[in-house]
Amino acid sequence: MYKIIDVEIQGFWGEFKAFCSFNNDVNIVIGQNGTGKTTFMNILNAVLSVDVSALAENEFESVVVKLGHEGSTRTVRVTKHDDVPFALAKYSIGQKKFALPLIGVDEIRSASLYRRRAAEAAQVIKDELAGLVSLASLSVYRFRNAQEYDAGDRGAYNRKLQGPVDARLQELMQGLTKYQLELSQKARDISYELQREVLMSLLYQQEPNPAKTGFALTYDADSERKNLMSAYKQLGLSGGSVTKRINEHVKAVDEAVRGIRSWLDDERERKELKARGERVDRVERDDQLDFTPIEASRRISKVYELSLQAEKDSKDVFSQLDLFLKIISDFIVGKRFEFDSGVLTIVEPKKFSVSKLSSGEKQLLILLTEAVLQRQESYIFLADEPELSLHIAWQRRVVPAIKSLNPNAQVVVATHSPEIASKYKGSIIDMEDILHVVS
């Protein structure tokens, strides 16, 4: 997916030109209050997310966003035009052109027909942009006013009652639950494939290299026991009866190997005596060599190899969520988070839901959850003042944590926090350098 190379905004606040180049990694936009950081972020987000109301409300004449990916570039242009009864935003994406009716907040109640047309036009543009960029935008303390919600949207009404942070947190927790359940299904598929491979391994198969067939007579009973316990656990089998059978198996193999070694030692001794011309008495053995346990051990070693690979594959499946939980525990000391039936839950010091966390903990969880839900894909991640409600120590670590969860994200952060900015001194963009008065 494409990332932002640069952005040019004409008519920023009616009298400025704004221009900014970005790198592919982390970009920190700084500036004093009132210098336009939030407006800049809002316009950039509005263009890439095709937010009709935000495009209408933020003052600009045109926006040009240059995108790049592996040497290829694409340009997204948006120009505002006055029209009757509503203004238009004309999009140009490559060679394709689109017209989008702009309906502001004050016009929503009396413009249901135009709003519907605007929504349809916006969706067409969103579908076109979806092939170019994956966008995530967070500004958890700035959500739309109640009058922007569709009167028929019960979910939106509930979000209004909840408050913006809780609404956003709930939305992301639902996404996280879905993600965890998807990964659980992948893990079940790995387990099913393991069972299939184990059953197939029991069937006769000609050795690819017959010269190397045979039995190894080096046997570590303790290691075998440990490996088998792990393998059968991966197959979903555990308990006293399984442990008993494994112990019996290990004992039988160990005795068989010892018996064969003893026989080989006797045969070696007889050959040496015979070679020296000494008399060799025929020895009658009370027991017969039993290769059955060793053959079973060879077959079971294949099961162990398969289970070991399945265990690795399962760990790989959950690696991102494991990292997510580790990062949360590194930030929020004294609380342990787990997934309970797919739902992220605090289980220590006592069990309670994430809705009971403090405002700062919720804000942090929102940022980290958004990052992990990007699934390490190429994303443009816009965040306006992510430091709000976060402790200074958290501010210092939050962007590195986001990049740890998704190294492929292009992070663009507008901030007042010197703690965030100090981590990325080479990536700071000052609003004073972005804005230029148009003569």
TrEMBL record:
SUPFAM superfamilies, per the entry: P-loop containing nucleoside triphosphate hydrolases (SSF52540)
Domain annotation Endonuclease GajA/Old nuclease/RecF-like AAA: ranges: 3-421
Family matches, as PANTHER family: ATP/GTP PHOSPHATASE, EXCINUCLEASE ATPASE SUBUNIT
UniProt protein name: Endonuclease GajA/Old nuclease/RecF-like AAA domain-containing protein
Source species: Halopseudomonas phragmitis
